[in-house]
Each structure stands twice: as C-alpha cells, then as structure tokens.
Amino acid sequence: MAISIEQMNGLDKERFVVLLGTIFEHSPWIAEAAWPLRPFASAEELHAVMMNIVRESRTETIVDLFRSHPDLGTRLAVAEYSAKEQQGAGLHRLTPEEYGRFDELNRTYVERFGFPFILAVRGKTKEDILASMEERLRHTASEEAETALSEIAKITGFRLKDLITE
Fold first, then answer.
1. Can you give the pTM of this predicted structure?
2. Which intervals hold domain Oxo-4-hydroxy-4-carboxy-5-ureidoimidazoline decarboxylase (predicted)?
3. What are the phi and psi torsion angles at 3 (to 5°)?
4. Most buried by CB count within 10 Å: which residue of 12, 48, 91, 103?
5. Residue 1: exposed, middle, or buried by beta-carbon count in 10 A (0-12, 13-18, 19+)?
6. CATH assignment of 3-165, given 3.60.10.10, 2.60.120.10, 1.25.40.10, 1.10.3330.10?
C-alpha cells in the first residue's frame, strides 16, 4: 500500500502509528512521537524527524532499538519488512555451511557489542553481508553503535520510500 505525504499528514494518530509503527523494527514509539510533529513536507522530512527522535533518545532506548532487529541469516521468524529484505539478499536460501557461518558471526557480534548485526541489505548479496560482518567485528563499541544507527537510517529510508508516494 502506497500513500501520499498529504494523506499521511491527515491520518489520525492510531492509523499513523499502524502505518509507520513497523518502519523501525518493533518500535512504534517512534511513529507515536512523530505524529504531533506533522505536517511533513516530504517523506525525507518525515524520515529526518523520525531519525532525530531516535538520536535524541536515551542510550538505553537506542540499544533497545538495536536489539529489536533480527539476526541476519537465521531461521527465526522475523517481521514482514525484514523477511522481504533478507529474501532479496538471498538469506532465505543459505547452504548449511553458509548458515553456520552466519550463525557464528551473529553470535560473535552479539557477544562483542550486545546487540545484533544491523545492515541495510537491499542491493547486497550474502557474500557482501558476510564481508561486512567480518569487517565490522573490528570496530570499537562506539564506532559500531554509530554504524548501526547509520544502517537503521538506510533501512528506514528505504522502507519509507516504498510506503510514501511523492
């Protein structure tokens, strides 16, 4: 379902949160906080406002947002947006060896940083994703928190562009 920014601006709070509450993985609180800040001139402005809400949140809240993201390449049930994005990268067709490598890197990453590896997988292959996981395991905790937030911005930007027509 696509909707114009004008239609989005005219929605009541409940409908606004229903439509935008899943843009950020399992985090409808961001859409709830954005609703009173309407009207938005564009999808880009709405996205900037929502990202600002995240950036201005307490560190614990941001880490909770990170933790709401699924591990990439796992066989666990994931949110609809994440499932489509992971399928687009071929993560639903992993060989047993590939699955084992994703599982190992996911576990190592969570042990190191305390939240799952977050990457905007649109346009990436499973090989790209594995290489990114290996590279980012060399980051410091603060570098990785910034990178995860940047990746969330990419993910949610893609999702909003898919939802809102100009």
1. 0.88
2. 9-161
3. -140, 145
4. 91
5. exposed
6. 1.10.3330.10
First-to-last alpha carbon distance for the chain, in angstroms, is 14
pLDDT per position as a tens digit, 110-124? 999 999 999 998 899
AA letter at 55: R
User: Exposed/middle/buried for 55, CB within 10 Å: 0-12, 13-18, 19+?
Assistant: exposed
Q: Is the peptide bond before 39 cis (omega within 30 degrees of 0)?
A: yes
As a residue count, the chain comes to 166
Q: Which residues are catalytic?
A: 69
What is residue 92's DSSP assignment?
Answer: G
Distance CA 77, CA 111 (A): 21
Rounded to whole angstroms, the Cα distance separating 80 from 100 reads 24
CA distance 98 to 157: 29
Q: pLDDT-derived band of residue 89, with 50, 70 and 90 as boundaries? A: low
What does the pLDDT look like over 12-40, one tens digit per residue?
A: 999 999 999 999 988 999 999 999 999 99
